[in-house]
Design goal:
Blueprint lengths: L6 H5 L3 H21 L7 H24 L10 H18 L1 E3 L2 E6 L4 E2 L1 H19 L12 H15 L4 H18 L3 H14 L3 H5 L4 H8 L13 H12 L11 H4 L11 H33 L4 H25 L17 H19 L11
Helix pairs in contact: 2-3, 2-13, 3-15, 4-5, 5-6, 5-7, 5-14, 5-15, 6-7, 7-14, 11-13, 13-14, 14-15
Length: about 375
């Protein structure tokens, strides 16, 4: 029996998108080594080796995601959502606590952050819903009730961990997918009115934030008010970025990093490490790689075969975009520090593998835009 292989799949494999992702991951792995470099120990090499291992798993995950027709995910969207929610529900019960937050499930030889898996699951289930709720006149307000109900449980569970930054990314991703799905003009008017009516309630909402979260917001505009406390992170980050100058101090020569002034230097503030070593030129190249990846991804969205694929790819890209915007904003002092890592770049297994697998789905959508095969019983 001869196996038929459609060579058009290889032809439409987006090697540019894959190479852009691998370039960011590769630079990030080198930066992880630098962030934890210590001449007296092998700490930097250990973290970089782990990051390289997770990157390898991420490539494998991306290739798995391109190996099947992405439209089959529509059938199992709610199964993926339920599995992600179950993992989130397990965190407060059996999760491990680090720095006052309970966000991980510890399996001994590795730790899993369920919120990262939940992002992808929520994107899949929302893509299915909006695909099936398409209306020529645009989405009605009642059509947004289901997405709100689907988004509320994971956001609430993540806020309880507490993880304000990740919860915010969830909200931005959902909002981005709603925009692409296309609310009707009347729905837009209602949303705008509700948003304006919420403004008077902001003081009440602020009063329910955790003390450290509130402190971070208060010192956002004036970090010098608490230079050794809540303002310390952003002050040291801005010093590191500024001291890099035009061309940087060179690999492994960042003083803010090597003297351990930078907090969370291999995760949340790795962009500061990179900018100090490679300067404005290096930072510009890195940001350009992100922009190129986003533009290439949007091309995939624009020429997707059908609505589900477009929504799926756009959801994955919006997750990357908002994480990058928030991280770059907080490390440069333009946004409050909320603990968001730089996608494909910061140290972390769950995030890296999930992001790379998600980009595999974007490539999948591009590969099968020509397909005429029907997926039955969706």
């Amino acid at each position: 029996m001869r196996l038929m292989f459609d060579r058009r799949l290889v032809y439409h494999f987006d090697f540019v998108l894959m190479l852009l992702m691998l370039a960011i991951v590769g630079i990030g792995t080198v930066s992880v080594y630098s962030a934890d470099y210590d001449p007296a120990s092998s700490r930097g090499a250990i973290f970089a080796a782990r990051q390289a291992m997770w990157a390898t798993l991420g490539v494998l995950g991306a290739l798995i995601m391109v190996a099947f027709d992405y439209r089959k995910l529509e059938r199992y969207a709610y199964v993926a959502y339920a599995a992600g929610l179950a993992l989130l529900l397990a965190v407060p019960v059996i999760g491990s606590t680090t720095n006052g937050s309970k966000r991980w499930l510890d399996f001994g030889f590795f730790s899993l952050q369920p919120s990262e898996m939940m992002k992808l699951a929520l994107i899949i289930v929302l893509a299915r819903y909006f695909h099936r709720s398409m209306r020529p006149e645009g989405l009605r307000l009642r059509d947004l009730a289901v997405p709100a109900l689907l988004s509320l449980p994971p956001v609430a569970l993540i806020l309880a961990q507490p993880d304000l930054g990740t919860a915010g990314v969830f909200c931005f991703v959902v909002a981005s997918m709603v925009v692409l799905a296309g609310p009707s003009p009347r729905t837009w008017a209602i949303i705008g009115g509700v948003a304006l009516s919420v403004l008077p309630a902001m003081p009440y909402l602020m009063s329910h934030l955790k003390p450290y979260q509130l402190k971070r917001i208060e010192t956002f505009l004036s970090p010098e008010l608490d230079p050794l406390g809540a303002g310390y992170h952003v002050i040291q980050s801005k010093i590191a970025i500024g001291s890099g100058g035009l061309y940087g101090k060179g690999f492994l020569h960042g003083t803010q990093n090597q003297l351990h002034f930078l907090p969370e230097q291999h995760t949340d503030f790795i962009f500061s490490v990179f900018s100090e070593e490679w300067g404005f030129v290096g930072a510009t190249i890195l940001i350009s790689l992100y922009l190129a990846l986003m533009m290439r991804g949007l091309v995939v969205v624009g020429r997707a075969k059908e609505r589900f694929g477009a929504l799926l790819a756009f959801g994955v890209l919006s997750n990357v975009l908002w994480q990058a915007v928030i991280n770059l904003g907080m490390t440069t002092g333009m946004l409050p520090v909320v603990g968001i890592t730089l996608p494909f770049f910061s140290y972390g297994g769950s995030s890296l593998v999930t992001l790379m697998a998600g980009l595999g789905l974007v490539i999948n959508v591009n590969m099968r835009r020509f397909s005429k095969d029907r997926i039955p019983n969706l």
